[in-house]
Design goal:
Strand content of chain B: 15-25%
Largest interface: A-B, 49 and 55 residues
Order of helices and strands of chain A: HEEEEEHEHHEEHHE
Helix content of chain A: 40-55%
Structural class of chain B: alpha/beta
Number of strands of chain A: 9
Distance between the termini of chain A: 94 Å
Largest sheet of chain A: 5 strands, mixed
Number of domains of chain A: 2
Oligomer: heterodimer
Number of strands of chain B: 10
Distance between the termini of chain B: 65 Å
Shape of chain B: elongated
């Protein structure tokens, strides 16, 4: 049987096809990498009737105000953006040793096993007895916080100093405060918290904070988040 | 003198283009891997602000984007506008219902991130309104988009 000689396929237009595909991808895609600062907004909770908010001391709140001319007012003092980082850092670190060095910044208290255990039992009892779902939800939020403290204590294996549970950074903006400035402020807050967590992480011998694995080192991350909490509240914009 | 012009007609050998498709394919694969699809056609101008602590969004499938900026089409005016998907929203009250349509199987609304891409000169009122709207429906995960510096 005679073998038929196969004709050579002309591949001359192959390059054209590939070019076409290439150009299609060039046009429809972007190189841009999406990056940003992640934040969780607080849940909207319906407050039960007659709810009395806990007393918050002035020292526990760091108020950062930005006005329509993009000027900063921190704790009622005019401040430049460059100096904000130092101030936020001081908010976390001034009393971190446990000695009340600076009465204007949040207090640190020692958290021990018995305190946590007592609180958790107490809250569980409250939740059981509570008939109003709104109040129960608030207790559950509280219980969650104490569970995290318990986990922290177990991870560290010893009592630790914790910043006042009411310590919070409050952001106030005006209608025309530019988004750019807002990002700058958020960035500084993030930077301080990341730096402090990293320092704590190194101090505890866990290596760099950013190298912690989300799954493997979950307890360590919880502990660091309890030790250096990131609590930001944002006031509604007044007219 | 004339020795250089001895061959009047010089035959240029054909260039072998057999490897050309390979080269183009290589480029093609590079672009396919290194780039991402554009999500939408931009209707507003967004100039992103820089931030040193910005982290890349890894799980893009579970992120919705809201764009706020100055309209590119002059007929839309000069006030900052909100863009949801391919359209300009009339006002911020559309954000909540829009986010509610963006459900994904197996995910609750509080697990899905909303990324705000806002022009750096836009005032905070519009951003604040959007956030309030998202909070009302428990879409609490926010990402403030910023250029990584």
């Amino acid at each position: 049987m005679a073998r038929r000689q196969l004709e050579e396929i002309n591949a001359g237009s192959m390059a054209d096809i590939a070019f076409l595909l290439l150009i299609f991808f060039l046009v429809t895609t972007t190189m841009e990498v999406d990056a940003g600062i992640s934040r969780d907004l607080p849940y909207k909770r319906d407050l039960p009737e007659g709810y009395v908010p806990p007393v918050v001391h002035n020292r526990d709140i760091l108020v950062i105000m930005a006005n329509s001319r993009d000027e900063l007012l921190v704790e009622d003092e005019f401040m430049l953006l460059e100096n904000l980082e130092e101030k936020v850092r001081a908010f976390y670190t001034d009393n971190a040793s446990g000695n009340d060095v600076n009465p204007l910044m949040p207090e640190y208290t020692v958290v021990t096993g018995p305190i946590i255990q007592q609180k958790i039992t107490e809250l569980n009892k409250q939740i059981e007895l509570q008939t109003d779902p709104k109040t129960a939800a608030l207790y559950k939020d509280d219980l969650e916080k104490w569970e995290k403290r318990k986990s922290t204590l177990e991870t560290l294996g010893r009592p630790y100093n914790e910043i006042s549970g009411a310590a919070v950074i409050q952001l106030k903006n005006q209608s025309n405060t530019s988004y750019g400035l807002y990002i700058d402020i958020q960035n500084i807050l993030k930077k301080v918290v990341n730096d402090l967590r990293n320092e704590k992480c190194l101090e505890l011998g866990w290596g760099e904070y950013k190298d912690l694995d989300e799954e493997e080192d979950a307890e360590k991350i919880v502990a660091l988040k309890v030790l250096i909490p990131e609590r930001i509240i944002e006031a509604k914009i007044e007219m | 003198m004339g020795r250089f012009n001895k061959n009047k007609k010089k035959n240029v050998p054909q260039i072998n283009t057999a490897a050309l498709p390979d080269i183009i394919f290589m480029l093609l694969f590079f672009f396919m891997v290194a780039t991402t699809m554009k999500e939408v056609d931009m209707k507003v101008d967004v100039k992103k602000h820089g931030a040193s602590e910005a982290e890349a969004i890894e799980d893009k499938d579970h992120v919705d984007f809201i764009y706020v900026g100055y309209p590119l089409d002059a007929a839309e005016g000069t006030e900052p506008r909100i863009q949801l998907d391919d359209q300009l929203a009339l006002d911020y009250s559309q954000v909540g219902p829009w986010k509610m349509t963006k459900t994904r199987e197996g995910y609750a609304v509080h697990e899905l991130v909303t990324s705000l891409k806002v022009h750096e000169d836009v005032g905070m009122r519009i951003v604040s309104n959007i956030k309030e709207e998202l909070r009302n429906i428990d879409a609490i995960k926010i990402n403030y988009s910023a250029e990584k510096r």
